[in-house]
TrEMBL record:
Signal peptide range: none
Subcellular location: Endomembrane system
Main localization of the protein described in the UniProt heading: membrane
EC code(s) of this entry: 2.4.99.18
Oligosaccharyl transferase STT3 N-terminal domain sequence ranges: 1-261
Transmembrane segments: 21-38, 58-80, 92-117, 123-141, 153-177, 218-238, 245-262
Name of the protein this chain belongs to: dolichyl-diphosphooligosaccharide--protein glycotransferase
Catalytic activity of the protein: a di-trans,poly-cis-dolichyl diphosphooligosaccharide + L-asparaginyl-[protein] = N(4)-(oligosaccharide-(1->4)-N-acetyl-beta-D-glucosaminyl-(1->4)-N-acetyl-beta-D-glucosaminyl)-L-asparaginyl-[protein] + a di-trans,poly-cis-dolichyl diphosphate + H(+)
Keyword Manganese among UniProt keywords: yes
Cross-referenced InterPro entries: Oligo_trans_STT3, STT3_N
Organism: Triticum turgidum subsp. durum
Amino acid sequence: MAATILAMVPSYISRSVAGSYDNEAVAIFALIFTFYLYVKTLNTGSLFYATLSALSYFYMVCSWGGYTFIINLIPMHVLLCIVTGRYSSRLYVAYAPLVVLGTLLAALVPVVGFNAVLTSEHFASFLVFIILHVVALVYYIKGLLTPRLFKVAMTFVLTVGLALCFAVVAILAALVASSPTKGWSGRSLSLLDPTYASKYIPIIASVSEHQPPTWPSYFMAINVLAFLVPAGIISCFLPLSDASSFLVLYLVTSVYFSGVMYD
């Protein structure tokens, strides 16, 4: 049913094999497949699906520069799960292999290279990776010690963890400060600040796809999905799980970015 509805959406038709025969036709599949495997790993805790998710991410890196959306959205969801007290071993298995294996594979792509570890688009994934390990260590120690000893151990772990996070943030800040664009690409800055391209990079702003869409064109592009989105959001909360919370976060960020850049 979802595939049938999606097949009637004009914006998807123009970006699929039926419409453009462009790299985005491959990239859209890789994007959705990576998210599918990530959610599958969240539900099963299988290292096999986590490895496939990293390989699918590598496929996305090879096909389109929009892969940075993946490596920022998934860390946002992991951080959301940690903050809301939904940490689990399945969350760790779903995220850790994706960052380690996915980053190593992404660095093999000539166009990306060391940008996979040196640009600001990737820093959020590394910071959340450290936070995830600190939280995992806290949960592991909690299962070994008595409540009294756990308080002492947690103080030590959090102190060391915060010191490590501050050190990483300081290193990343030094790398970012050395770049005129603070380590961000012009396209990413245009997404975060819709007025950036028109002020500093006119060639990006001159492309019609990089302009914010008008309301008529926006509704025409997403077609029937505009009326099904509210029902989809409600269903995600009945009940709210790790997988459904990811779908809500995916929806919110997609609505924002599609409203900023009609790409």
